[in-house]
Amino acid sequence: MLHPELISMENEVFRVYLGWTAVLVIKIFAMSILTGLTRFATATFANPEDLLSPKLKVKFDDPNVERVRRAHRNDLENIVPFLIIGLLYTLTNPSAFLAINLFRAVGIARIVHTLVYAVVVIPQPARALSFFVAAGATVYMAFQVMVTAAF
């Protein structure tokens, strides 16, 4: 049975979910800005109309731009599912302590993932660890939603 009070500002789990959702949505937008800044810094543009000088040519293979683009794509592949499953998990009326820490883990891990992948490149296993923390938490929440739904 759905309890409307679960989706209210009175529910601490829902409030924390909203906060981390906002952080992660801003992070996705920030990746677009970082891609643009990296394109300008390396003079790497994918469209002729974006070229700053007639001396420049369209270029698709700058390793710095591609690294930021891959990090951005990874965010889209991982944050969007979290946004959905996190809300559904909130509706299962989970333990506040566990839910809040899962939301924090996903948010912090996704930020760390970008930092070690696209900002200050750090060798593995830094990126893998941050990826698996967020993915593991999201999969755990999905499993709990399935168990609670008892389909």
Automatic annotation (TrEMBL):
Pfam families the UniProt entry points to: MAPEG (PF01124)
Membrane topology of the entry: Multi-pass membrane protein
InterPro entries cross-referenced by the UniProt entry: MAPEG-like_dom_sf, Membr-assoc_MAPEG, MGST1-like
Recorded GO MF terms: glutathione transferase activity
Main localization category: endoplasmic reticulum
Keywords from the named record: Acetylation, Endoplasmic reticulum, Membrane, Mitochondrion, Mitochondrion outer membrane, Transferase, Transmembrane, Transmembrane helix
Subcellular localization(s) per the UniProt record: Endoplasmic reticulum membrane; Mitochondrion outer membrane
SUPFAM superfamilies, alphabetized: MAPEG domain-like
Transmembrane segments: 17-37, 79-96, 102-122, 129-150
Group of enzyme by EC: transferase
Catalyzed chemical reaction(s): RX + glutathione = an S-substituted glutathione + a halide anion + H(+)
EC number(s) stated in the UniProt entry for this protein: 2.5.1.18
Record bears the keyword ATP-binding: no
Gene Ontology cellular component terms for the protein in this record: endoplasmic reticulum membrane; mitochondrial outer membrane
Family recorded in the similarity comment: Belongs to the MAPEG family.
Main function: Conjugation of reduced glutathione to a wide number of exogenous and endogenous hydrophobic electrophiles.
Subunit structure: Homotrimer; The trimer binds only one molecule of glutathione.
Protein name: Microsomal glutathione S-transferase 1
